[in-house]
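Ticket #4471: structure export looks truncated?
Reporter: QA, pipeline team
Priority: medium

Steps to reproduce: submit the single chain below to the structure queue and open the exported record.
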Amino acid sequence: MPLDDVAQRVTLALQAARSGSSDFDLNPEFAPPPTRKLRPAAVLVPLIEGPNGVEVILTKRSSRLKHHPGQIAFPGGKVDAGDPSPASAALREAWEEIGLPADAVRLVGELPPHETVTGYQIQPFVGIVKDPFETVPELGEVAEVFRVPYTHVTDPARFSVQDRIWQGKSRRFYTVPYGPYYIWGATARILRGFADALQ
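Actual output as written to the record:
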């Protein structure tokens, strides 16, 4: 499916109101009190035309990072006080992390917010990369920038639920592996929400 057709489909799909997601969806027994304060964050779900169709750009975090080392993530991060909006924060972080200029992206919608077990509320924005750009991974934070087929991560059948021990307790999470990349946790949960919205 051409990128323009995908953009139109995504725009229409994301206009419908949906409830947010969280790392506790599969682990309600560990849910924190609803009064806890969450720190705002924003990520970009970048869609780009590839040699074999539309692809999603993802990053592999550096193994030297203190938080979530080596994990697969979207470009994005904390919303800073100087950011005019969460969307601006997502675009700023995409520029800083992978060298994607803000003016090369056309935002086509946003997914419901996702709450993480680490206390962030992430607002995901879906954007079409309309201009070619040179990928420049941020030294010290991004180990690799790669792409996965849009059709892979928007197919609910590609997802599975697994579990692992975290802080001494078994917790469940979504996964959507692709080749050597083990996509799991918040990234996989957001992608699963994206896949569900498109059905």
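Status: closed, not a bug. The export was complete when the record was re-opened. Leaving a note from the reviewer for reference: The chain has one domain: 3-198.
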